[in-house]
Amino acid sequence: MTIITDITLPARAPYSTVLKSGQTLRIIDLESQQAVDALFYNAHDTSERYSAQDTLAAQEKYYLENGAVLYSNESRPMLTITADTCGFHDTCAGACSCESNTVRFGHETRFMHSCRENFLAELGRLGMGKRDLVSNVNFFMNVPIRPNGELTVDDGVSEPGGYVELRAEMDVLVLISNCPQVNNPCNGFKPTPIRIVVTG
C-alpha cells in the first residue's frame, strides 16, 4: 500500500480530506483516551451523507466495531471499519457544542471550543454551512447506556497507539474534529494529538 497522507493533527484541531474509493483511513490515538469526531459525505454530492440511523439499523447494535459498515442517508455503504484496537465506537452522543456545554456544564463553559465549531470552520472552508451538519461518529469514545436508558460519557478505553481503520466504499469527503472537550472524561480531561494516515 502507498502512503498518501501521514500527518499529526494537533489537539483540538479540525481536518478534512477526500478518500477515494478503496483508499484506507487510519486514525491513531497517540497518547490514549482521545475522542475523535468525524462527519462523512459523498464527495461528489454532499446531499448524500452519513446516517447514524441507517448504520445502526444495519448493524443491529448500539455501537460500531470492526466489520461495521457506515451507511449514507441513501442506504448505500460509505465506509467499512476494517481494523480496530478499541472494540467499539459511539455514534449516538453527537458532537460537543457551545450550547450543549452550557446545558451540561454551566454557563461559564459557553465559549469553550467545541467539535461543532471545528466542523463549521471546515464546512465553511469547503463552501458548506450549518445545514450540512449531520450525525457524526465519535471514534474511541466510550458512551455506555445506564440501566435507566440514559447515555453517559465514561473514560475512554483506547491505549496509546490504538487505532481504527476505515476503507472507503465510495469517494468520501471526511471531516475530523480532534475533540477539544475538557468537561467530561472523553479525552481524559486533556486533549492530545492524533495521527492520520491515508493509504491506497
Task: Summarize the entry for a quick read.
With 200 residues, the chain is α+β, with helices and mostly antiparallel strands.
Written account of the structure:
The protein is of the alpha+beta class and 200 residues long. It has one domain (3-199). Helices cover 14% and strands 32% of the residues. The protein is built from three helices and eleven strands, in the order E-E-E-E-E-H-E-E-H-H-E-E-E-E. The chain has helices at residues 52-59, 98-105, 115-125, and strands at 3-9, 14-19, 24-29, 36-42, 45-49, 69-71, 77-84, 137-139, 162-168, 172-178, 194-199. The strands form two sheets. The chain has a six-stranded antiparallel beta sheet. Strands 2, 4, 5, 8 and 10 form a five-stranded antiparallel beta sheet that branches. It is globular and about 40 Å long. The model has no long low-confidence stretch (mean pLDDT 90).
The gross shape turns out to be globular
Helix content, binned percent? 10-25%
Taken together, the total number of domains comes to 1
Series of secondary-structure elements, N-terminal to C-terminal: EEEEEHEEHHEEEE
Number of strands: 11
Q: Low-confidence stretches at least 5 residues in length (pLDDT < 50)?
A: none
Name the beta content range: 25-35%
Head-to-tail CA distance between termini: 6 Å
